[in-house]
Specification:
This protein is α/β, with parallel strands linked by helices. It folds into 2 domains: 4-12 and 256-371, Aspartate Aminotransferase, domain 1 (Alpha-Beta Complex), CATH 3.90.1150; 16-253, 3-Layer(aba) Sandwich (Aspartate Aminotransferase, domain 2). It has helices at 16-28, 40-58, 71-86, 101-112, 130-136, 159-168, 188-191, 229-232, 240-253, 258-277, 304-310, 331-335, 340-343, 357-371, and strands spanning 4-5, 65-68, 92-96, 116-120, 141-145, 172-176, 195-199, 210-214, 281-284, 294-299, 314-315, 346-350. The strands form 3 sheets. Strands 2-8-7-6-5-3-4 form a 7-stranded mixed β-sheet, with helices on both faces. The protein has a 3-stranded antiparallel β-sheet with strand order 9-10-12. Helix 7 links the parallel strand 6 and strand 7. The radius of gyration is 21 Å and the shape is globular. The two termini are 20 Å apart. Bound molecules: pyridoxal-5'-phosphate. The site of pyridoxal-5'-phosphate has 14 residues, from helix 3.
């Protein structure tokens, strides 16, 4: 059997339509989008068309989109931008204890600069309790940041409910939606968020491009100071190639129809694992409120990394792919209270639009053999 890719939460292949527009942008979009002459105009048109395409799945206005180099930059921009614009000496942030390092690390940095951070607990399925959020808000709270869907378990947080609580208290809300765009609805008004992060390579754009939604009227300190690109919010000459890629990928991602098939396959995968391994396999994450493509399972008493080594044709992750290769229990599973002898056996299978039933059957057969 050829190689099987079940690591779509780590990154996705570039879609053909995306590669086509990138090639076209390279051939025709070489001008500087800020130049008023014949060479700059097509590049500017590509960038602005892409902005409307990116705004579409979020249901926001194009001018509320700032292009970034990816999810990490968008998160850094949101958190540091609010910190520096707050004017407070000890601004207070609230987050969850199951966030991606691209939220955890900037918050740790801001703590060194004087920020106070409350890390809300999560339950055994990885969910925050909105009542904990309500209790954590103080007069100094400037931002709540809670991820939309978890990259390891797929657990979907009650963002609309949490954002409503923040709004009642006049506090801004950011969500890291790097994993949810293209998998579940991500409309900013339905979620009630003021800031939202997207990362192109999670939905079939190339690596190195993403976006931050910034609600109109919200003043953030610019992330990169320089010339007035991106309406003065992020300096640096825009890449027609990367922004056009993100635009086309966002258009493709706004059709969530293919995810229904992915979810059927994912559920069939889980049923097959339960049949094969009974109590020796455990689901990590919320049984229902979970990304349709994500299956994080723990093989009790085993080591996930060793299982993957024994079936090298299968690309999947233990812990999170961004920091794979380490042998500790993932901080997300730890925050969920997962026992180490269960959590160490965790493997995250994340399916994509091109995953086939044959591939799933092959992995189940291989797991039976490896674990027998
Ligand atoms: C939830 C989440 N946030 C942020 C990121 C970082 O995105 P990027 O790799 O585009 O910087 C990732 C990537 O793994 C992610 O899963």
């Amino acid at each position: 059997m050829r190689d099987i890719y079940l690591d779509f939460n780590a990154s996705t292949p570039v879609a053909h339509e995306v590669a086509d527009i990138m090639r076209r942008a390279l051939e025709t979009g070489h001008g500087n989008p800020s130049s008023g002459h014949w060479a700059g105009v097509p590049a500017r048109q590509m960038v602005e068309h892409a902005r409307t395409q990116v705004a579409d799945p979020l249901g926001c206005a194009p001018q509320e989109i700032v292009f970034t180099s990816g999810g990490s930059e968008a998160n850094n921009h949101a958190l540091k931008g609010v910190f520096f614009a707050s004017g407070k000496e000890r601004p207070h942030f609230i987050t969850s204890s199951a966030e991606h390092p691209a939220i955890v690390a900037p918050l740790r940095f801001l703590e060194r600069l004087g920020a106070q951070v409350t890390w809300l607990p999560v339950d055994g399925t990885g969910m925050v309790d909105p009542d904990d959020l309500r209790r954590a808000i103080t007069g100094d709270t400037v931002l709540v940041t809670i991820m939309h869907a978890n990259n390891e378990t797929g657990t979907i947080q009650p963002i609309a409910e949490c954002a409503a609580i923040a709004r009642e208290h006049g506090v801004r809300f950011h969500t890291d939606a790097a994993q949810s765009v293209g998998k579940i609805p991500t409309r900013v008004d339905e979620l009630g968020v003021d800031l939202l992060t997207m990362a192109g390579h999670k939905f079939h754009a190339p690596k190195g491009v993403g976006a931050l939604f910034i609600r109109d009227g919200l003043q953030l300190e610019p992330f990169i100071h320089g010339a007035g690109h991106e309406s003065g919010r992020r300096a640096g000459t825009e890449s027609a190639m990367l922004t056009a890629a993100l635009g086309v990928a966002a258009s493709l991602a706004s059709d969530l129809g293919p995810m229904e098939r992915v979810q059927v396959l994912r559920d069939r995968f889980w049923d097959a694992l339960k049949n094969a391994f009974g109590d020796r396999v455990v689901l990590n994450g919320h049984p229902e409120r979970r990304l349709p493509n994500t299956l994080n399972v723990a093989f009790v008493g085993r080591v996930g990394a060793e299982i993957l080594v024994a079936m090298p044709e299968v690309a999947a992750s233990t812990g999170s792919a961004c920091h794979s290769g380490r042998d500790q229990l993932s901080p997300v599973l730890e925050a969920m209270g997962t026992e180490p002898q269960v959590g160490m056996g965790a493997i995250r299978f994340s399916l994509g639009r091109t995953t086939t039933a044959n591939e799933i059957d092959h992995v189940v057969t291989r797991l039976r053999r490896v674990l027998s």
